[in-house]
Amino acid sequence: MKINKVRDKNHNQSSPNPHNKVRGVLMKKILGKKFFQLLKGIGQIAQRESLTAYLVGGPVRDLLLGMQQNGTYGGKDLDIVVSAGREITKNTAINLAKELFQIWSPHPPAGEAGQKEVKFRVHQHFGTATILFPGLQIDFAFSRKEKYAYPGALPEVAPGNIEDDLYRRDFTINSLAMELNPDNFGELLDLTGGENDLKKGLIHVLHRKSFLDDPTRILRAARFAGRYNFQIEKKTLVWLKEAIKKNVFSTISRERFREEMITILKEKNFVSCINLLSSWGGLDFLSPSIHWETIQTSNFKLQTFGGDWLVNLLLLIKNLNYMQSEDVARRMVLTREERKVILETKKHLPKVLQALRKNYPLDYIYRYFTLLPEQGIIHLEVSNPRWENIIATFHRRKNKARAVINGENLKKLGFKPGPIYKKILERIYQEKIVGNLPINLPKKKIKEKEIKFVTKHFALA
Ligand code: CTP
Known about the structure:
The protein has 21 helices and 11 strands. It is globular and about 85 Å long. α3 crosses α6, α8 crosses α11 and α10 crosses α13. The longest helix has 22 residues. The protein has 3 domains: 183 residues, Beta Polymerase, domain 2; 115 residues, Orthogonal Bundle (cca-adding enzyme, domain 2); 118 residues, no CATH class. β6 and β7 form a beta hairpin. By secondary structure, it is an alpha+beta fold. The strands form 3 sheets. Strands 3-4-5-2-1-8-9 form a 7-stranded mixed β-sheet. Strands 6-7 form a two-stranded antiparallel sheet. Cytidine-5'-triphosphate binds next to α8.
């Protein structure tokens, strides 16, 4: 790939660059005044310390996309890289972040002024620092170069210049930097043609071994292509498919695979990302039994109800049985709670589906629904529009199904405090869901009915 090492042609150290000025005005408009001032503040501190600060990676990509498209900034977090013409120490970025924190913590750029939650975290070992304003995270690092000891290894990191830092990245659209120092504020450092690829809508790796060095980039390629509706550049696609054929996912830890997979499942447009992965054979590592067919549902539904990544995982493994799902849970190192959601759904779903398909009476169906975790019910609703009404009614009932009576009432009825209380209240909840106890009467009436139900169905010890 041709690498454009020439900095902005118009750039001239001694006179301000008109091109940058235009960027500055646009940036202010897109980012908002406070955000913009914060970036300027970072540059001012850097310049005072004879350093250069850059906004890098995702935020630059999203800023440029915002300029090209609708004039809004889609990103949330800011990544800052600090560089110096001289030898850099591990504390360089940390010290700059500390100064910024002291200046800005009384007036956070997001949230209420003076809110206590502004936090400062230092990761001494990595030479990085994070400022957490309410609703905005800023990460600081020194510019670095990376070397991979073997495919899939975590990279060995050493201080480097900003060019090294950009060349170590995944895609051209993510290896962009924007200078923040006052002299060159807003100047784009684009060594790999990222701005052009952004315009063309291309995901483009920087070299042929990129996916072997870091196989998570396969998942990231699907994520960015799905998110922005971008194409994978021709050679990139060849290298990506070659890497999948070599089973590269087996060279990384399950935790790294898990993390990127979950990030995909959290994407708004996760269906497009999965479509791509599936077309490349990139889901086989998760389970060769997955037969992904794009789910027939509206985006509105997916975003409103499928916001939980576990719902989306259930949609992804819709055709897998209990045992195959156990394998997926292992591959994705699911926690005990996450595993329970997946496996309880798989365990009870056949009964629920049978009840639905055979038109069992509603109270039967609702009883089965109560066996499913919430995510299990939602995934059913998202993927089967024909049961939408039944599930919507179930949810309405469920929201109002908490018992009106409480422990005090049970005590007055003569029940000795103990596990029986939980059992009774749970039973009332179930009966309200299936419609055997009312949910829509005045509270006093509901309470009377519940008390009558308890005295009829539970004996005093
Ligand atoms: N990066 C990389 N290779 C990876 C992970 C990250 O090169 N495997 C680089 C990219 O330059 C990326 C930056 O690190 O832009 C930050 O990564 P991350 O926060 O994961 O992604 P963002 O690009 O910020 O994307 P998002 O909008 O999803 O946060």
